[in-house]
Amino acid sequence: MKKPWFYLLWFLTLCVIAFGLWRFSPPEPARKQEPANIPVAATNTPSASSISSSEPIQPLPLSIALDERKVSLGNKLFHDPKLSTNNTISCASCHDLKQAGADGRRLSLGVLGQLGDVNSPTVFNSGFNFKQFWDGRADTLEDQVDGPVTNPKEMDSKWPDVIQKLKQDPSYVSAFHAIYAQESIDPLMVQDAIATFERSLITPSRFDRYLRGDQAALSDREKAGYHLFKEHGCVVCHQGVNIGGNMFQSMGKMADYFADRGNVTESDLGRFNVTKDPRDRHKFKVPTLRNVALTAPYFHDGTVETLDAAVQTMAKYQLGISFSSEETALIVEFLHTLTGEYQGKSLAEQP
Amino acid sequence: MPLRLKPVLSALVVAGAVILLSVSFVYSRGANFKQHNAVMDRLRQLKQLDATLNQDLLKLRFGLLMHYDSIPHHVEHLRALIGGLKEGSAAIYGKTEAAIDEQVLGLERLLARKEAVIEQFPAENATLNNSLRYFPTLTTQLLKSVKDLPLPSARSLEPVLNELLSRVLVYNLTASEELKPQIQVLLDALTQASGELPPEMKEDLTLMTVHAKTILTEKQLVDQLLSELLSMPMAEQIDSLEAGYTAFYATADRRAGRYRLVLYVLCMAFLAALVYIMLRLSMASKALVQANATLEQRVRERTEALSATNDQLAKEIDQRKRDQETLAEYSKRIEQSNRELDDFTYIVSHDLKEPLRSIDAFSKFVVDDYADKLGEEGMGYLERVRANAKRMQQLIEDLLAVSRLSRSPNEFQVVKIQDLIEEVKLRFEYVLSQGKVQILVKNSLPTLTCDRVRITEVFANLISNAIKYNDKPQCRIEISSQESDPGGHQFSIRDNGRGIEPQFFEKIFQIFQRLGKKEEQEGTGVGLTIVKKVVELHKGKIWVESTPGEGTTFHFTIPLTHNKTLPKD
């Protein structure tokens, strides 16, 4: 039989252990602990895929993880004229995937043949733009969707009407329900689906292959053109994964573009319309140069018809120099290497 | 009532303890360390990310980073992190802290400000960097051209260009604006001198001047933006936020710690109670086991003892039975032999009387008829024969009397003892009339049921003895009675005779025992035997008290129960 002192000893030991646990276990606040698992780098940070980090231009990611159902729904919505008030205009009307994501017009056509204020930029690779619209008034693609849909000069719709029309299509109802698990359709869902589809629109090009180390991807003249592109300072603005699309810049840094062009409109004020900061007068989002060979006419006002002319305009107003015709030709040749492929086919050969 | 109160009280105590336990458990977890840690991590990431952003801005400024992609990403991520902080402190610390929420909002506003400034930065920085790359190239190109020129005035441009080149490049790297007027002077000088140059060089010079001027303005602008950006107290605000969170957490943790202490004490109390109960239980069970063992031992011992006693008892009973049987056998035998003896005595005495009578009769004939022939001496012998024959006849008579006592009891009847004494007195009339003997009745004597004839014999015998064995000139006999035992009576006959030695107290009651010489006293010595027998027939007792030389007292009792109905033998 065990003696009472044995229990006493046992109890005292337990006391000591319990006291120790209580006294010394409360963790000291933070610092020594492992950091919680919050991703530091955003998924699409181009610098992360540093094939050639010294290059100002970064290749497109090889793949982007997206919800295929949303992409497919977004694709349908993107091409659906129901988004416009009279069912005549879809997103694709101005961002025709067969025309390199733009419409080839100087200014876009809205409902009832109205002319828009600015030239339609390509929708391809728009997911890599830091902001949307020439003046960057939308922070995200989702926010951007709202713009053309409700713009009186574009689709001139009201969201309740759009939703009403979509609800009449059972395929939409089931598709939305399948993805968002809600009975009703919400404008935010439409925006989300379209934006997701737009993020899928990436066009890897020969130049990306070159950036990833394939020297044979470019001809010598194209390489010379790229060299000139960097040498003459085009690259200070057109850099990053989208070769542009990550900063605002004054149109006419070295010369007064608008004085020369004349007929200054409100939209020519650019970023100023958003911030009302005098410093932002005539500032525009630097556009991407991907597929630039296919997206004429150029600039926010669509006044320049050819790529040669566009290169020369940029040299004059942004760099304060003029390129020789040879330099221009080389740069243009380089710019043609930026024409990418969508769904395995070059944008130049889209039917 | 207290018996009923006790379980209610203990139930209340237990319920209270449980409630206290759960409350302190909940409160002891008031400080959510995990979530606090997550917040701390978020803050660290914010700080790190802000530092990375600043670093990237500096790299862009000095051409170490060639593209701006990371900047919007960093900003976006910062915004997301701060948005996460806005979820509030309530979930983490159990209650909200307005000051901390305000700080988070402040941080968000600061980020918005920084974002606005950052938006300006790339455009200016791109322009500056473009000019910074163009300017040295153009200047070097110009220097080469100037060297080739034959004009002496153009030669003077060379040091100016060199000066300008170095000044501008140094200016780009210094924080001060001191060099700006000097560069301006040099630029003005170059513009004045440009008139003499060939148009091609002039163009280059103009372009170079434009870039130099761009550098002058943009450098100031970019550095201004940069210093504005870098001096934004993001890190400081994050630090103070961290300190706020930490203090808040420490407070919450202290509070939780107090509840932990309560919890600990409670747990210890429970543990102690548990151990106490276990101890008590083990002790109780031990005691129980011991008690059981003792009990078993005792039961065993008792059983053993009992069975031993039983055996003993059985043996004893057996023995008793046997003894009783033996006894019964003996008493039977004794009775038998007694009866036989009585019969024998009767027969003997009865049958002996016949020859004795013959002896007496024929001896009388001899005396009567042949007295003269026998002579004096012969007559003497014959007289002796006759005396002995007579004596023998007397002995036989006595024997017969004694034996008859047990053989033929008389009817019991109510007897007035007083009358009976008077009757006895008549027998001794002669002696009494002589005045030598006095019989006194001390008190009134009772009336009782008895064998009248035999009781008379008792008194007669005792009085006769008292007279016979008296040596005093005046013989006094006192008769008295007293109550003894309920309803019984004790009679005493006292004399003033010569007394009896104590060693003879028993012997005198035996048959044919006489004190003194045969010749001295008449009688056969059967009287007291008869007396004793009669008393015993009445279930009474007889004993004697005596002082030699002074007198003797005979006491006998006649118990009540046997007064009325004496069993017939």
Note the topology.
The complex is a heterodimer of chains A (351) and B (569).
Chain A: H1 4-24, H2 68-78, H3 91-94, H4 141-150, H5 159-167, H6 170-180, H7 187-199, H8 206-211, H9 220-231, E1 248-250, H10 257-261, H11 272-275, E2 283-285, H12 307-319, H13 325-336, E3 341-342, E4 345-346
Antiparallel strand pairs in A: 1-2, 3-4
Helix pairs in contact in A: 2-7, 4-7, 9-13, 12-13
Chain B: H1 2-28, H2 33-61, H3 70-85, H4 90-93, H5 98-148, H6 152-155, H7 157-173, H8 179-193, H9 199-230, H10 234-407, E1 413-416, H11 417-427, H12 429-434, E2 437-441, E3 447-450, H13 452-468, E4 475-484, E5 488-495, H14 527-537, E6 542-547, E7 551-558, H15 561-564
Parallel strand pairs in B: 2-4
Antiparallel strand pairs in B: 1-3, 4-5, 5-7, 6-7
Helix pairs in contact in B: 1-10, 2-3, 2-9, 2-10, 3-5, 5-7, 5-9, 5-10, 7-8, 8-9, 10-14, 11-13, 13-14
Q: So how many helices of chain A?
A: 13
Ends distance of chain B: 76 Å
- Share of helix among residues of chain B? over 70%
Fraction of residues in β-strands of chain B: 5-15%
- Termini gap of chain A: 96 Å
CATH topology of the largest domain in chain A: Cytochrome Bc1 Complex, Chain D, domain 2
The total of beta strands of chain A comes to 4
The shape of chain B, in one word, is: rod-shaped
Mean pLDDT of chain B: 83
Strand percentage of chain A, roughly? under 5%
What helical percentage do the residues of chain A reach? 25-40%
- What is the highest CATH level, the class of the domain at 19-232 in chain B? Mainly Alpha
Uncertain runs of chain A with pLDDT below 50, 5 residues or more?
A: 27-50
Q: Kindly state the mean pLDDT of chain A as a whole number?
A: 87
List the secondary-structure elements of chain B in sequence, H or E. Answer: HHHHHHHHHHEHHEEHEEHEEH
CATH architecture heading of the domain at 19-232 in chain B: Up-down Bundle
- The topology string of helices and strands of chain A comes to HHHHHHHHHEHHEHHEE
Main sheet strand line-up of chain B: 2-4-5-7-6
Q: Radius of gyration of chain A, Cα only, in angstroms?
A: 28 Å
**What general form of chain A does the structure show?**
globular
The whole-angstrom Rg of chain B is 80 Å
